[in-house]
Design brief:
Radius of gyration: 28 Å
GO biological process, one term: DNA replication, removal of RNA primer
Helix content: 25-40%
Protein name: Ribonuclease
Order of helices and strands: HEEEHHEHHEHEHHHHHHH
Number of strands: 6
Pfam families: RNase_HII
Largest sheet: 6 strands, mixed
CATH topology of the largest domain: Nucleotidyltransferase, domain 5
Organism: Clupea harengus
Distance between the termini: 77 Å
Catalytic activity: Endonucleolytic cleavage to 5'-phosphomonoester
Structural class: alpha/beta
Shape: elongated
Strand order of the largest sheet: 1-4-3-2-5-6
Length: about 300
């Protein structure tokens, strides 16, 4: 699988796709949707679709596709080759969502959570297939969130297409299994071949599965935490795992809340706010030695003083 377009700039999301089989432009088709890498703290999340004519479902099943989570890496690679070789009637497309996109979306002022990001990725891929001329009649989806609500959303967005949303759809429908394999193979390749934009020297690539509970992943996160600059963009810094490590191991930084004025912020940090200068008494502003501090020459040269009444 060629991930060149994504590897050229892995800070942003990227669309990859196979050629569209001619038969998919003339015959009624089914399409499956699944994702890989929703939970890890490292690397991208990949949404995948796979499609073929309804009349070719048995031929797709004969390729022995299965839920990618039940397969070894070697089996997934082999099955992806089989799918790629069946390009006369099978097509696929991927949305590779960078860890940087995931984190900035989740932490921006107008929150864009992972479910919304996932739904939009799935919708975008279905629309891509339609725009490419695929004659979609059936769509099968592994659920994200409540299945019925998600199914209603997709049915309204794509009227005329029969939508089926089911938990564990990747183990129920071969076309979803095929999408699962495409997504997982792409994520595996992206993680293994990750190009670090940061100057980290020789990077230890033994970062485990990328899941927060993996000891190798935890160790890697500790080793590559810069106390000032945080993590490389390979890390989803919006994940609680990363945030906890940053809070306990990085230099503390305080960002004033919009509702918190400078005086309160300074008091909370046992510090002096610039605004406190303007709250000094008139005697202090006039350079009264009893204040223990002279007024700034900007005020004395201009003979300015605070007044309490007009």
């Amino acid at each position: 699988m060629d991930l060149g377009p994504f590897e050229a700039d892995n800070t942003v999301s990227c669309r990859l796709a196979s050629a569209i089989p001619d038969i998919c432009k003339t015959d009624d088709c089914c399409l499956g949707i699944d994702e890989a890498g929703r939970g890890p703290v490292l690397g991208p999340m990949v949404y995948g679709i796979c499609f073929c004519p309804v009349s070719k479902k048995d031929e797709l099943k004969a390729l022995k596709v299965a839920d990618s989570k039940t397969l070894t890496e070697e089996q997934r690679e082999s099955l992806f080759v089989n799918l790629d070789e069946a390009k006369s009637f099978v097509g696929w497309a991927l949305q590779v969502i960078s860890p940087n996109t995931i984190s900035t979306s989740m932490l921006q002022r107008m929150k864009y959570n992972l479910n919304a990001l996932s739904h939009d990725a799935a919708i975008g891929l279905v629309q891509f297939a339609l725009d490419s001329g695929v004659q979609l009649k059936e769509v099968f989806v592994d659920t994200v969130g409540p299945a019925e609500k998600y199914q209603d959303k997709l049915s309204q967005r794509f009227p005329g297409i029969e939508v089926t949303v089911r938990p564990k759809a990747d183990s129920l429908f071969p076309i979803v299994s095929a999408a699962s394999i495409c997504a997982k193979v792409a994520r595996d390749h992206a993680v293994k071949g990750w190009k670090f934009l940061e100057d980290l020297g020789k990077v230890d690539t033994e970062y485990g599965s990328g899941y927060p509970g993996d000891p190798k992943t935890k160790s890697w996160l500790l080793n590559y935490l810069d106390p000032v600059f945080g993590y490389p963009q390979f890390v989803r810094f919006s994940w609680s795992t990363a945030q906890t490590l940053l809070d306990s191991n990085a230099v503390p930084v305080h960002w004033d809340d919009d509702e918190e004025d400078g005086e309160k912020s300074a008091a909370r940090q046992n510090n002096t706010s610039m605004l406190s200068y303007f709250n000094r008494t008139s005697s202090q502003a006039n350079g009264d030695q009893s204040s223990g501090r002279d007024a700034h020459r900007f005020f004395t040269e201009r003979r300015l003083q605070n007044i309490s009444s007009l």
